[in-house]
Amino acid sequence: MYISAQSYPDEEILGLANDVATALSMTMPEVLKAFGQYLFGHLNRTHLGIVEGFNGFADLIMGIDKVIHVEVSKLYHEPNLPEINARLIKNGFILMEYYSKRQLCMCAEGLIYGAADYYNIDVTLNHIQCMHSGFDKCMIEIKYEAENG
Ligand code: HEM
Ligand SMILES: [Zn+2]
Fold first, then answer.
1. Paired sense of beta strands 138-144 and 93-99, if any
2. Other CB atoms within 10 Å distance of the CB of residue 106
3. Does the Cβ of 125 fall within 6 Å of ligand 1?
4. What is the mean pLDDT of residues 85-102?
5. Which of 30, 43, 49, 55 has a CA positioned 20 to 30 A from the CA of residue 19?
6. Percentage of the chain with pLDDT > 70?
7. What residues contact 109, with CB distance under 8 A and at least 6 apart?
8. Nearest ligand, CA 138
9. Domain 3-144, CATH class in plain words
10. Ligand 1: which of 37, 72, 73 to mutate, judged by most atoms within 8 Å of the beta carbon?
11. Which residues place a Cβ less than 5 A from the ion ligand 2?
12. Does residue 1 surpass a pLDDT of 50?
C-alpha cells in the first residue's frame, strides 16, 4: 500500500501509530484519520484513474476487493492484499469484513476515513470485532452520510 510499509514488520506499524498518538496527544482515531487521508491521497495520485471510476463513497467501498485491489494485483508482482467483503445493509450503513494475515485493519480504517474525506462526507466507524483480539476476521461497521438521503 505504501512504500515504507514493506520494510517494517506489520506489528510495528501499529506500535508506531500508538506512539504517535501519545506523543502528539491525539486519539488513535485522530491519528488514523490523518494517516488515512494522507495514504488515500497518495494511492489516488500514484494510481490515476482508479478512484475516478467510482460513483461516490459507497460505490468505492463496495468495489475495494473486486475492482480496486484486482487492478492493483495486475500492476504489482505478488502484492500483499487483504480480503475485504463489504455489504450494503441499507443506505448509509455498510458492514465490512476484513481478513489479512498482515492484520492491518487499522490501515483499512484509516483508508475508509480517507475515502470519506475525499468525497467530503462524514463517517463513523465501529470496529465490532478484531483479529487483534483473536477473531478470525475483523468486522467494521461503516455509518456514512448517504448521498441523497
Ligand atoms: C477505503 C478504501 C481502501 C481500503 C479499506 C483498502 C485497504 C487496504 C489494506 C488494509 C491494505 C494493506 C494490506 C493488508 O491489509 O493485507 C491495502 C493494500 C493496498 N491497497 Fe488498498 N484499500 C483501499 C483503497 C485503495 C486504493 C484506492 C488503491 C489504489 C488506487 C489501493 C491500493 C493498494 C495497494 C497498492 C496496496 C499494497 C499492496 C502491497 O503492499 O503489496 N487501495 N489496502
Ligand atoms: Zn481489526
1. antiparallel
2. 23
3. no
4. 97
5. 43
6. 91
7. 29, 32, 36, 125, 127, 140
8. 2
9. alpha beta
10. 72
11. 105, 130, 138
12. yes
Give yes or no for residue 99 having a pLDDT over 80.
Answer: yes
C-alpha cell at position 2: 505504501
Contact 112, 142 (CB under 8 A): yes
Distance CA 27, CA 33 (A): 10
The count of other CB atoms within 10 Å of the CB of residue 96 is 24
- Ligand 1 pocket, residue 80 CB under 6 Å: yes
- In total, the chain counts a number of residues equal to 149
Break the chain into its structural domains and give their ranges. 3-144
Contacts of residue 17, Cβ cutoff 8 Å, sequence gap at least 6: 28, 31, 32, 35, 106
Number of H helices, E strands in the chain: 5, 4
| pLDDT tens readout for residues 7-17 | 566 677 778 88
Distance 111 CA to ligand 1 centre (A): 8
